[in-house]
UniProtKB/TrEMBL annotation:
Residues 1-10 have a biased composition (Polar residues). InterPro entries: P-loop_NTPase, Small_GTP-bd, Small_GTPase, Small_GTPase_Ras-type. Keywords: GTP-binding, Nucleotide-binding. It comes from the Eukaryota. Residues 17-29 have a biased composition (Basic residues). Residues 1-32 are annotated as: Disordered. SMART domains: RAB, RAS, RHO. This is Small GTPase. One of its GO terms (molecular function) is GTP binding. PROSITE patterns: RAB, RAS, RHO. It comes from Dictyostelium discoideum (Social amoeba). One of its GO terms (biological process) is signal transduction. Pfam families: Ras. One of its GO terms (cellular component) is plasma membrane.
Length: 219
């Protein structure tokens, strides 16, 4: 009889212990969920918004600034456009593993007018792409004036900048040698890249190069 009472006591005690352990287990599970939820919230808070950068293409009419812009933004080659209209293109772009929002200002043929609007565009931009055609010495000779204009408007000694010799697919019509263009880039302490908007040669390299300078400067 005594053994039966002891056995019942042990069973009841075990049942209570099991219930207690279940409560502890549920409590721990809830804590785990809370921690996971908090981590999720924490991660959301740490997620930074995409950074915005503004670039501008500058150069004489007909050198391919708009074609470069379209090739980069939409991966298409355009041959017909209004050469007197300034336009802006936007693109989400992954650079160095981070998502960026880019705005690319295409000044078209407005370099000829030296307008206040042109100065305003320069003032608002972070990086500068100076474009000439390797088939035109006149467009190459204007690069120096463009650089001086940028530095004057920005009131700086240096800005993120790349010199671009476009239309590299027209080698047989070349009027500016690579060595001459590289010498100018060395004088300006910037990079020289030859591109073809028609074939897409070095377009991605061009924008990765200028973005590298812009991002580094803004750190």
């Amino acid at each position: 009889m005594g053994n039966t009472s002891s056995s019942n006591y042990d069973c009841n005690q075990q049942s209570k212990n099991n219930k207690k352990n279940n409560k502890i287990s549920k409590k721990n599970k809830n804590c785990s969920n809370t921690i996971n939820n908090n981590n999720s919230i924490s991660n959301c808070k740490k997620e930074e918004p995409k950074k915005n950068y503004k670039l501008i293409t500058l150069g004489s009419s007909g050198v391919g600034k708009t074609s470069i812009s379209f090739r980069f933004v939409s991966n298409i080659f355009v041959t017909e456009y209004d050469p007197t209209v300034e336009d802006a293109y936007k693109k989400d772009y992954v650079f160095d593993g981070k998502e960026l929002k880019l705005e690319l200002i295409d000044t078209a043929g407005q370099e000829e007018y030296s307008s206040g609007l042109h100065d305003k565009a320069i003032r608002s931009c972070d990086g500068f792409i100076l474009v000439f055609s390797i088939t035109s010495r006149e467009s190459f000779q204007k690069i120096k004036d463009l650089r001086e204009k940028i530095l004057w408007v920005k009131d700086k000694d240096r800005v993120p900048m790349v010199i671009v010799g476009n239309k590299s697919d027209m080698e047989k019509d070349r009027r500016v040698s690579k060595s001459e263009a590289r010498s100018l880039a060395e004088e300006f302490e910037c990079r020289y890249i030859e591109t073809s908007a028609k074939t897409s040669e070095n377009i991605e390299l061009l924008f990765n190069t200028i973005l590298g300078q812009v991002v580094e400067k803004k750190k």
